[in-house]
Amino acid sequence: MKLHIAVVHSNIRPHHCPYCGMRFATKQNFKRHLVVHTDAKTYSCSHCLERFKTYGQHKRHLLESHNEGTWFTCHICEKKYIQQCQLKRHLLRHEGTKPYICSECPKRFYTADGLKTHQTVHSDYKKFICGLCNKLFKRMGTVKRHFNKCCTLLEFD
User: What is the rounded average pLDDT of the residues 99-111?
Assistant: First the structure.
């Protein structure tokens, strides 16, 4: 329980990605993230020679190419999902239900992640860092734009 509280509910994120500046509480999450910046494809198909970076890509391939596994299908619009939790989140949109309410303003969200992302607006916590100049940012998109500008400036120096 103490570990869960320390990892999930604190702002301590000692591991940061040198490519995009995103910060992580655990080394395991950091290592899992690094795959998006490399060509490593650790998941391989047992039916063919295809390889994949992520479990989700691998599972989608098995479902689409080899009819292995189960799709979770929306009974309203027929949209298909790899995981049941994705379908549940999707169904909230059909219901118009936004159960997650910001405690600082009247905004509401379909998912806890949406609320968590929004709450950075009300906080001074910055979990993204530029790998070139160490400037801190609240959002990943902002640090990516900044990083590209930083790279451009370095090219002209």
Answer: 92
CB neighbours of 143 closer than 8 A, spacing ≥ 6? 20, 21, 22, 128, 129, 130, 137
pLDDT averaged over every residue in the chain: 84
39: CB partners within 8 A, 6+ apart: none
- Residue 157 clears pLDDT 60, i.e. is over it: no
In CATH terms, the fold of domain 43-95 is Double Stranded RNA Binding Domain (3.30.160)
Q: What is the pTM of this model?
A: 0.53
Rounded distance between C-alpha atoms, residue 20 and residue 151, angstroms: 12
For tokens 């320390």, what's the residue? 6
Give the pLDDT band of residue 12 (cuts 50, 70, 90). Answer: confident
Tens-digit pLDDT profile for residues 16-69:
888 877 778 888 888 888 888 888 888 899 999 999 988 888 999 999 999 998
Alpha-carbon span 77 to 80, nearest angstrom: 9
User: Which of 29, 25, 61, 26 has its CA nearest to residue 43?
Assistant: 61
Contacts of 63 (CB under 8 A, 6+ apart): 69, 70, 71, 82
Q: Where are the domains of the chain?
A: 43-95
